[in-house]
Amino acid sequence: MAELSAKTPCAGLLPVSAGGVTLSEVDAGVLTSLSPRRGRAEALGKALDASVGAKLPEVNRATGEAGSRVIWFGQGQYLLMGPDPAAALGAEAAVTDQSDAWAVVRLDGVAAEDVLARLVPLDLRAQSFAVGHTARSMLGHMSVSITRTDPDTFQIMAFRSMAKTLVHEIETAMKGVAARGAG
Amino acid sequence: MRITCPVCGERDRREFYYVGDAVALQRPDPDASDVVWDDYVHNRDNPAGVTRDLWYHEGGCGAWIVVTRNTITHEVLGTELASDVKEASA
């Protein structure tokens, strides 16, 4: 029988660094999308709080911390990152396993904002995109989820099939920002 | 061009996919006459001025949006969720 080995989406691609900015892969654990049934968002929030101690975020916001995070993930959709979803959540929401479907990376560094400014059509500066803010937007031509998890750290998620392009795009921007800073 | 998504807020036009005339929200009854269906499928006004179009927030939250805009000035006059428009007309 074939011996299969599990590989992360960005295996062999990361980490990379340039100009004081580092791009590395995040092992996000179990990923679960939660789509509340009609009118049940509040009930889902309570069930989530009771089962995994996580709060349901507002639109464009994320709650929790590394290892147990909930991010707003689109119209009527949330993503639970880390904990196993409790069976009770199924009564309030459509619960779908998304583990292994997403490439999850983090961009660290003072110039991380400058790197993303080259790629994302949003104002991601701290005054308009603070810690705990999240957005569904585009990075280059890719649909992504972007969350500021710390003052100088962004979590970026793209479809797993786009992992290589995601790394290529961000690394190219990192080198461009680094070259400009050095000049 | 900037479009205000009713869910996400104001965003760049590149996040949105243009679908077509918002007439798609007024789909005729399955038993409607051939004339009604022909009109629904094929006939569109092409006004110089205010239009109502369906857009899809593809590079964003995934919402379907009715955008009212002016084809002469390119001004976006208003946006609303297609689901709200559909429910209001039901």
From TrEMBL, chain A:
Protein name per Swiss-Prot or TrEMBL:
Sarcosine oxidase subunit gamma
The protein's organism comes out as Shimia haliotis
Enumerate the InterPro entries for this protein.
TrmE/GcvT-like
What is the phylogenetic placement of the source species in the record? Bacteria, Pseudomonadati, Pseudomonadota, Alphaproteobacteria, Rhodobacterales
Domain of life of the organism encoding this protein? Bacteria
What SUPFAM superfamilies does the database record attribute to this sequence?
Folate-binding domain
UniProtKB/TrEMBL annotation, chain B:
This protein's source sits in the domain of life called: Bacteria
Which GO MF terms are attached to this record? sarcosine oxidase activity
Pfam families in the record, alphabetically?
Answer: SoxD
What InterPro entries does the database record attribute to this sequence?
SoxD, SoxD_sf
The name on file for this protein is: Sarcosine oxidase subunit delta
Might you name a Gene Ontology BP term for this protein? tetrahydrofolate metabolic process
Question: Species name for this entry?
Answer: Shimia haliotis
